[in-house]
Amino acid sequence: ISLYRRPFVESYEETPMLVAVLTYVGYGILTIFGYLRDFLRHWKIERCHIAREREEQKDFVPLYQDFENFYTRNLYMRIRDNWNRPVCSVPGPRMDLKQRVSHDYNWTFEYTDQVIRDVINLGSYNYLGFAENTGPCTDAVAKVTLQYGVGVASTRQEMGNLDKHEVLEELTASFLGVEAAMAFGMGFATNSMNIPALVGKGCLILSDELNHVSLVLGARLSGATIRVFKHNNMQNLEKLLREAIVHGQPRTHRPWKKILIVVEGIYSMEGSIVRLPEVIALKKRYRAYVYLDEAHSIGALGSRGRGVVDYFGLDPCDVDVMMGTFTKSFGAAGGYIAGKRLIEYLRTHSHSVVYATSMSPPVVEQIIASMKCIMGEDGTTVGQERIRQLAENTVYFRKRLREMGFTVYGNQDSPVIPMMLYMPSKIGAFGREMLKRNIGVVVVGFPATPIIESRVRFCISAAHTKHLLDKALSVISEVGDLLQLKYSRHRLQPSPMRPLDDSVYEDVVD
């Protein structure tokens, strides 16, 4: 019996050999010139702008190894202008950026009085378009701000537990279809501080190799044994589960106290979706537990916006620990943990609850208002329309990129769309050329990605209109021709049998 109710399609086109070779050559040239410049800096021939230890400190243990900063000095600094750009408006489908210039090759920046207006935003995690300053959600937040203020100044266990926090947690549990949920003020800490409360010494964590750093940090802090399985590779995961059951703990061979499988809903650098039906099947077969991070998938997947569980039509009770963030689809901040028979335990054992300040009331109200909109409890169909629009925008944007000849990674339904750049010189060039044409994008390189797999990561929103997407796609195609980025050997084109039907495509070898 198939575990999937719908086709599960993901594509990862292999890097062309010539492109891979040229990428390595590019990094080689940059490394050679980097060492040459370091030599010139050492002999005071070239001025060095980096913070360094004083001469009188040379006999002490160094704060860092010199090579650790090599990439930052000689590669990152050359393209640093593509990051940390100051946004001076709502980060909606269009945004305004403060213009800045550098007179010392990106070591420092100066702000001008000019503003780059109406930049099409293809980088924010604003999946459902709730990052806005008008509308019912904004009105509700403004009202709560006047009633409660902007801060709580205490922890939940002391004087910081508001009635709004209780409403939020009850609503989140209802939204997810589970017994209980609890909210935290920071999405990163939701993982890093709660995993150590759930597992410890004598437990085993099986972690996907592409899991977010917050999951990795939480696993390391827990003291549990960690074993990594290949991304979305169920054969590798089952092999590790079998070995864990057969051999038990190292040296003593006692059974593991717990085996926790840690996965994400959507992997934010790959645009792939977890094979959750197979993960749950393995979990049941080997009596393990599943920890699901839905930071990017909650609100963005499923016919009702309930995330990857809704997307596959699964029972939420089959996932032992459901984690997600409010920072993306809900346009707010913080995260949640939901499930059964573990929430009351976390209330007394999680560092994020005991020591962290409570969530700000306006942030809580933004989550409540947007969640009710998604659920339809606001009396409108706006939430459902946004979910549908996001799905349509995602499929359309991906198809058009592949049609143009770009190499695109990930699942066909993922709103995170990585497009491959490969070469280090093209990371900065693509970001700059796009901004010249009033398109804001996020470019990503090593060490966030493998060294020969630099990419640009588009994040599609329900707030994007077809006109905006078409305008952006036209610019992407223009810049792609300019920088020669159309690497794909498999292009999509409209079927010749139905030339006017954009929904039918076929693979052709270019």
Distance between the termini: 37 Å
Radius of gyration over all CA atoms, rounded: 24 Å
What is the CATH topology assignment of the largest domain?
A: Aspartate Aminotransferase, domain 2
Can you count the helices? Answer: 15
CATH structural architecture of the largest domain: 3-Layer(aba) Sandwich
Q: Can you identify the CATH superfamily of the largest domain?
A: Type I PLP-dependent aspartate aminotransferase-like (Major domain)
Spatial order of strands in the largest sheet: 4-12-11-10-7-5-6
Find the structural class using helix and strand composition.
Answer: alpha/beta
> What percent of the residues sit in helical stretches (DSSP H or I)?
25-40%
Low-confidence stretches: 495-510
Sheet with the most strands?
7 strands, mixed
**Can you tell me the overall shape?**
globular
CATH class of the largest domain: Alpha Beta
DSSP summary, beta strand count = 19
pLDDT averaged over residues = 91
Protein name: serine C-palmitoyltransferase
Keywords: Acyltransferase, Endoplasmic reticulum, Lipid metabolism, Membrane, Pyridoxal phosphate, Sphingolipid metabolism, Transferase, Transmembrane, Transmembrane helix
Transmembrane segments: 17-36
Subcellular location: Endoplasmic reticulum membrane
